Model the fold of this input.
Amino acid sequence: MIDVGSMFRNLQGGQNISDHDLDTALDAARREYIDRHPSSLEHLREAAKYLPGGNTRTVLFHDPFPLRIVSAKGCRIRDVDGHEYVNFLGEYTAGMFGHDNRVIREAVVQALDNGISLSGHCPDEARLAQLICDRFSSVERVRFTNSGTEANLLAVSAARHFTARRRVLVFRGAYHGGLLSFAHGESPVNAPYDYLVGTYNDSLSTRELIRSHAGEIACILVEPVQGAGGCIPARVEFLEMLRDEARDAGIVLIFDEVMTSRLSFSGLQGRYGIIPDMSTFGKYLGGGLTFGAFGGKSEIMDLFDPSRPDGLPHAGTFNNNVLTMAAGVAALDGILTEERLSELNLRGESMRDALNETAAREGIAIRFTGLGSLIGVHATADPVLNADDLKDADDRILELLFLDMLKRGFYFARRGFISLMLTIGDEEVDGFVESFGEFARNRQGVARTGS
Done:
């Protein structure tokens, strides 16, 4: 049984009045959250009998306890206690199409009618592969997986085999899946590769690191925007440097576009004109169903050709499952036009600008980062270029914002992440910005710049 009392952070005396006021405000917000969500708490207690902490997906857990969502429609979700929220999380970018897109639903139903688990190839897998290869310049061949984690693991393994080198250059603050996480230091469950960890957006130190280990590095794995690390965009010159150094040293450059491929019709690689050797994908490209993919130059990807006597193995019972293949084709071929994607990203830019203008006007220590329809939320007033810039951010402010916005009917990630769906319009964005303004004015005393 979960002890509710243990979920509360013990109040510290604080070194000054603002610390004490912040702790007091946060404690009150947590208690109100508990009072408003008794059924979610009861569901968690029951789940904890069978799941560690009542959880099977770590990112969804937060104090005092996570909501239990029971239904969704359009851009709104409803919890087991009957509260409705506008969903600004968008399933961490996988839910781009909203909760009940008719085109995707009809494609999945038709696939169900034709039978599931077919025990062989299905027509939609080749069509989805074609759509992805046509859309992303780096992808001459592609293979499907069940998650972005799998896609990154296989891309790294392929690069290590292709180059006959061992080391993998990653960046502090990065997240490439549950087994390739550097968002909060190196995770104890990371795949046991030989890592070099560089500083994101620091071209000088990274160039020196690459040149010092050039003959040892198999691949550079980088997110064009660090997602879980805070929605921090890479500087274009930083990515250009990586491209040049990788080419000169015979290193495979891998762009992790699991999240960022949605930031232009051809991904950020297309938007910037910086073409990696390999790319990894996931999330929305499967129409919101379980999906991952890795692709790149044919000379690398053809290592997986099973007709070759030396072909690399790549199994996965559900790599080509008919539901995801059908949903992905419907999404890319029938919904996600360049015009609709551009409109979505412009809405995100406008929302980010409005939120930052509000924070500056009200003098509150919150900054919104990101690019296009992806937005990070940070408890700092300072610029954010990499994970090091967040070491002094006060997470209590972020939690207070999260709990306050939930009460106002807006849902996003507790860690501070927003991902717009196509079903979110100007009305919902305006409502979020207005509610954030009310939070900023009401909480000035405990979350003020420089407090």
About this structure: The mean pLDDT is 94. The longest strand covers residues 217-222.
